[in-house]
Design a protein that fits this description.
Helix content: 25-40%
Low-confidence stretches: 170-211, 213-222, 295-344
Mean pLDDT: 74
Number of domains: 4
Distance between the termini: 46 Å
Strand order of the largest sheet: 14-13-24-23-20-21
Largest sheet: 6 strands, antiparallel
Structural class: alpha+beta
Number of helices: 7
Length: about 450
């Protein structure tokens, strides 16, 4: 899938090329004609027989960039997953397929202050592996705040759900089947708290294309319905037998209350039949109860705090930390393994940005994001026209690179303006322009 970016006046666009020559599809018309919440507004253009989709991403920064050097809290992870929930509800309303959404962190565009996401829907082009939910789930676990236990638990549970072929974990928000039409657009959707590790049927399901290893998680269990039906029937029969036995006792004690009269032999036979039926039904009920206990896996009903956080795959050279979970009703401590806070790459050269009046912004670690929103950037830049998240400086193999982050008024290097989200190498002494503010980049302090 070919993705490019373009600045057109004060508008920034993400552009996807769809290599087809046929007429616009119904889904394409549906997106163009409706302002669908949680989807980036799309305008199609036909150039040389190809379809180009222009998505308005003005004022937004992608998820990957915002948290490139930061850890995510539970509230921030929840904001992303609740946005995903809202998206799925809208897709169901407009009969759109979730398979045609780009889920990679670089394709989810957020408002910097609220983190409200806008997703990219590419009609008639199912997502490939590079834009799949697995990359989103991996990103959340890689950037989880290791000091926030609830954030780590939520991120790892979501990773497990995605590995099992699901879109959304149930504890975050209510989800619906794609065949159900939502009654309202209230957001966030109501929360529920079933155990996400033992009830995979409660999640949005992407059964098509699931690997053979994951298919057992979605196999239909025919015995479940049959066992429930048998247990219900056994209880009904037990009630009927108890009622019949009660009527028999009353008939023996006060035969005048009944219009019929039985002989002693008939009383005896009736009592034996009722006793036998009662014994059979009682045994059946006991068997069903024992079978239910046997079928329940040890740990299926563990309390929420006893759910172990899955350990990520080894080999990614990530440090880990441990913390102790003190349980009130137990005399032991349980150790849960989670990722430590994301560490930034330190810069031995200590580069810096200098204002014309001599003020300095020191760059102590990479990636280094600059803008005017203190809570989201590493270096706050003064000046008119500066975007909340304006630009980013990265270091690679001793070289430095400046990237525009979809800023409104643009980013330049030595008088040359970068396109939206474009990256350019910067050298010692280069002049960086952020809107109307000029800064000089120095690779060494002093």
């Amino acid at each position: 899938m070919q993705i490019t970016y373009k600045r057109n006046g004060i508008k920034n666009y993400l552009i996807v090329k769809n290599e087809r020559y046929d007429v616009p599809s119904l889904r394409e018309k549906m997106i163009v004609r409706n302002d669908i919440p949680y989807l980036a507004k799309m305008t199609p253009q036909s150039i040389d027989g190809y379809s180009y989709y222009y998505y308005d991403i003005q004022g937004r920064v992608n998820l990957e960039t915002i948290f490139s050097g930061r850890n995510m809290t539970k509230d921030e992870i929840s904001a992303i997953l609740q946005g995903l929930s809202g998206l799925l509800s809208e897709l169901a309303r407009y009969l759109l397929s979730p398979d045609e959404v780009l889920y990679a962190p670089s394709d989810i565009w957020l408002l910097p202050d609220t983190l409200e996401p806008a997703f990219i829907y590419v009609p008639d082009m199912p997502q490939d592996e590079l834009h799949s939910l697995r990359y989103l789930a991996d990103f959340l676990t890689d950037h989880v705040d290791g000091n926030d236990r609830e954030a780590a638990k939520l991120a790892y549970e979501y990773l497990e759900m995605v590995e099992n072929g699901c879109i959304l974990p149930k504890p975050v928000c209510e989800t619906r089947s794609l065949n159900d039409q939502p009654e309202s657009l209230e957001f966030p959707l109501p929360e529920r708290n079933p155990d996400p590790l033992t009830d995979p049927n409660e999640y949005w399901d992407l059964k098509e294309g699931i690997s053979d290893e994951m298919k057992p998680f979605f196999a239909e269990d025919d015995n479940t319905g049959n066992n429930s039906s048998k247990k219900k029937t056994a209880y009904i029969l037990l009630g009927l037998v108890i009622s019949l036995a009660s009527a028999y006792i009353v008939m023996v004690m006060a035969p005048s209350l009944f219009p019929i009269t039985l002989t002693d032999e008939e009383y005896l036979i009736s009592g034996i039949v009722i006793a036998f039926a009662f014994a059979v039904v009682l045994i059946s009920v006991s068997f069903q109860l024992k079978k239910k206990d046997k079928d329940t896996a040890p740990g299926d009903n563990l309390p929420e705090e006893d759910i172990a956080v899955p350990k990520p795959e080894t080999g990614d050279n990530i440090e880990y930390m441990e913390y102790q979970d003190h349980t009130q009703n137990e005399e032991y401590e349980k150790t849960v393994l989670i990722k430590s806070p994301l560490s930034l790459s330190k810069s031995p050269a200590s580069p810096e940005l200098r204002y014309e009046d001599g003020r300095i912004i020191s760059i102590s670690a990479f990636p280094f994001i600059i803008g005017k929103m203190k809570s989201r950037v590493d270096g706050v830049v003064d000046g008119t026209g500066i975007s909340r998240i304006h630009a980013m400086i990265k270091e690679q193999d001793g070289k430095y690179f400046l990237s525009d982050l979809n800023s409104l008024n643009g980013t330049g290097v030595n008088g040359k303006m970068l396109d939206a989200n474009e990256t350019a190498e910067i050298l010692d002494g280069d002049i960086i322009s952020l809107a109307n503010t000029s800064l000089t980049f120095h690779t060494k302090a002093g």
